[in-house]
Amino acid sequence: MKIICIGRNYVEHIRELNNPVPSEPVFFLKPDSSLLIRNRPLYYPSFTSDLHYEVEIILKICKVGKHIQNEFAHTYFDEIGLGLDMTARDLQETAKKKSLPWTIAKGFDQAAPIGRFIPKSRFADQGNISFHLDLNKKTVQKGNSGHMIYSFDDIISYISQFITLRTGDLIFTGTPSGVGPVKIGDILEAYLEGEKVLKCEIK
Ligand code: MG
Question: Smallest Cα–Cα separation from 77: which of 191, 192, 169?
Answer without folding.
Answer: 169
